[in-house]
Write a structure and sequence with these properties.
The protein has 285 residues and is an all-alpha fold. The protein has helices at 2-10, 13-30, 32-35, 75-111, 113-128, 131-142, 146-173, 176-183, 188-224, 236-243, 255-280. The chain has one domain (14-280): MetI-like (MetI-like fold), CATH 1.10.3720.10. It has eleven helices and no strands.
């Protein structure tokens, strides 16, 4: 705990700002039912009402501080529940993709031979298809339920993780301490767990942050196209799509979920940049 506090104090302001953004979004995701004045699907007023900060100025007991959406739901409440839905699904998807991709990459680098060739060719086939087109085809055939959405995005993203983890493991696998472990008679799974994984952890943790951003944006893109989280679930990408027609009338409701997407993406990238800089060993002048 003391080391974590010391590390946080020594971090640059950019990393502190990024961490604060991440903590704020996690807080909103965890306590959305408590923070949100309305339910996720509850109507709070008329269509596209402007922001009203005082309950005395509206015919309802609770003000709509960011206005209402295209069917009269409270936009602030939808943003809170959208944080819970979007961030949770993106995190779970990234964890699954990293587990599958890193285990596959380590196996390919450690076992070599036909294992490496088989896994690499499967990954090459999947990566030959454009990411968005492949996701659209699979989701169109299998449906757009949350388990299918998680499976499809995790499968696609695991191919990228496989490439990175395999490349990192290849560099570590030729080190002398790995060869010494093999000469001692250690098994391949022990080498993967005790020698390769600890030394590959830093680049993989940084890549996890970047992958989370890509998955988060990809889910928002699919929701914007109508193949992500389905109504009435709140999702930032679908909220942009649902309210985009209001821009023609000068109603900027769709900019709030778009700003939330950009806000979290920038925060994660600030922390990842600091982590990469710290892991590289480069000292600030």
């Amino acid at each position: 705990m003391k080391d974590a506090i010391k590390l946080l104090k020594s971090s640059p302001w950019s990393a502190k700002i990024g961490l604060a953004i991440i903590v704020l979004n996690i807080f909103c995701a965890l306590f959305a039912p408590v923070i949100a004045p309305y339910n996720e699907t509850e109507l709070a007023g008329d269509v596209w009402e402007p922001p009203i900060w005082s309950a005395d100025a509206m015919p309802h007991d609770t003000p709509v501080i960011l206005g209402t959406d295209h069917i009269g739901r409270d936009l602030f409440s939808r943003l809170m529940f959208g944080a819970r839905n979007t961030i949770t699904i993106a995190f779970v998807t990234t964890v699954i993709a990293f587990f599958v991709g890193s285990v596959g990459g380590f196996m390919a680098a450690t076992f070599k031979g036909w294992v490496d060739q088989t896994l690499s060719r499967i990954v090459d086939i999947l990566m030959a298809f454009p990411t968005l087109i492949l996701a659209l085809v699979i989701l169109t055939v299998m449906g757009t339920s949350i388990p299918v959405l998680v499976f499809v995005i995790a499968l696609i993203d695991a191919t990228r993780v496989f490439r990175i983890s395999r490349a990192v493991a290849m560099d570590i696998e030729i080190m002398e301490y790995v060869e010494a472990a093999r000469l001692r008679g250690e098994g391949l799974w022990w080498v993967m767990k005790e020698e390769i994984l600890p030394n590959a952890l830093s680049p993989l943790v940084a890549e996890f942050g970047l992958r989370f951003c890509f998955v988060f944006l990809f889910i928002s893109s699919l929701s914007f196209l109508g193949l992500g989280l389905q109504p009435p679930l709140a999702d930032w990408g679908s909220m942009v799509r649902e309210n985009s027609s209001g821009i023609s009338f000068g109603i900027l409701t769709s900019l709030f979920p778009a700003a939330a997407i950009a806000f979290l993406t920038v925060g994660v990238n600030l922390v990842v940049d600091w982590f990469l800089h710290r892991a590289s060993g480069i000292k600030d002048v």
